[in-house]
Each structure stands twice: as C-alpha cells, then as structure tokens.
Specification:
With 186 residues, the protein is mainly α. It has one domain: Arp2/3 complex 21 kDa subunit ARPC3. Helix content is 76%, strand content 2%. It has helices spanning 2-31, 43-71, 83-87, 92-112, 116-143, 148-158, 163-180; strands spanning 33-34, 40-41. Strands 1-2 form a two-stranded antiparallel ribbon. α2 crosses α7 (163-180) and α4 (92-112) runs antiparallel to α5. The longest helix has 30 residues, at 2-31. It is globular, with a radius of gyration of 17 Å. The two termini are 22 Å apart. 37% of the residues are buried.
C-alpha cells in the first residue's frame, strides 16, 4: 500500500517537474526574439513541443502557467515584457491564442491518437486557431474595428510573414518529439 502511494506521489512530482521545465522553456523561447509588429519568437516551438512531449493535459497546464506567470509581472513574454498590459495589449491575442492551440491539440490527439502525423495535423490546426484569435484581437485593438480591410492588414503584418517560420518550427518540434517522446513518462 505504501509503495502505491509513493508511486502516485512520484508521478505528481514528475508531472510538476515537466510542467515547470516547459514553462521555463516557453520563457526562454520568448526571449529569443526579433522585434516586429508581432515579435518573431520561438514561443510556438515551445508550445508545440510541450503538447507533443507532455500530452494535452500537462502541456496545456504549462501554457496556462506560463501566461499566468507573465500576467503577474514576471518578464517571460517577448522582449522581456510582462503584466496585464503585455497580456491584453495588441499582440496579447496571440498569447491567449496559445491556450486554444493547446486545447485544440489536446482534443485532436485525445480523439485520434498520438501518432506523429496526427500531432503534425494538430500542430497546424492549433497554429491556425492561434493565428485567427490573435489576428481578430490585433485588428480590433490596432484598427479599432474588425472588418475585411483591418483583417487583411493584420494578416499581412502578423500572420503572412510568420507562416514559413512557424511551419519550420512545427517540423523541428516534430523531429524532437519523435526522438524524445520515449523518455517522457505519461
């Protein structure tokens, strides 16, 4: 009986360690930044890798904790920004979109399995959802309205320049996940 309790406790500690590790990875990846209207960072790489290696539940929890830590003032966002102003500012929709990315990826892998091609599809769909949420958010805050012109301008500033780099980040994440997944306990 005691060993069973210790095993459950150990897995909870392992879960917390993995989640903490990926929160730190998200922060580090956000600091590797090229400043633009929407900063070019490696955050999405960390998001894809977290879900791919940790699974939907632990990966999404790590995304939520990352955003919460940034919201309370720890400088974990691009450009070492933090606080509600960064989270709810013009590019905050992309940050909040990470939650939807995690939930979408979690749902897809839960429904269809964790094969690498399923994860690739989940990554792409999750990225599209993040783009959509962030673009509508940016259009509203930057242009003060949401219409075809503001969405088109927002897409040209905030999405189109990032498509190829984000697809490359998905590819690198999938390679990393395929090699490391066997070492991560469920």
């Amino acid at each position: 009986m005691t060993s069973n309790v210790n095993t459950k406790t150990r897995f909870k500690v392992v879960d917390l360690a993995y989640i903490g590790l990926f929160v730190a990875l998200m922060a580090i990846c956000s600091w590797i930044s090229v400043p633009t209207a929407v900063p070019f960072t490696l955050q999405t790489f960390a998001i894809f890798t977290a879900i791919g290696l940790l699974g939907g539940k632990r990966g999404t929890i790590s995304i939520l904790l990352y955003l919460m830590i940034g919201a309370v003032g720890v400088p974990v966002f691009a450009g070492f920004k933090s606080g509600p102003g960064a989270l709810f500012g013009m590019t905050g929709g992309y940050l909040i979109g990470f939650i939807f990315t995690g939930l979408i990826m979690w749902g897809i892998t839960a429904a269809f399995g964790k094969k690498l091609y399923i994860l690739a599809i989940a990554d792409v769909i999750g990225l599209i959802v993040c783009y959509a949420f962030g673009t509508v958010w940016f259009s509203y805050l930057y242009f003060g309205q949401i219409n075809a012109a503001s969405i088109g301008s927002s897409l040209s500033m905030c999405v189109i320049p990032f498509i190829i780099p984000d697809l490359c980040k998905i590819g690198i994440s999938l390679m990393l996940v395929s090699r490391l997944r066997k070492y991560i306990s469920e």
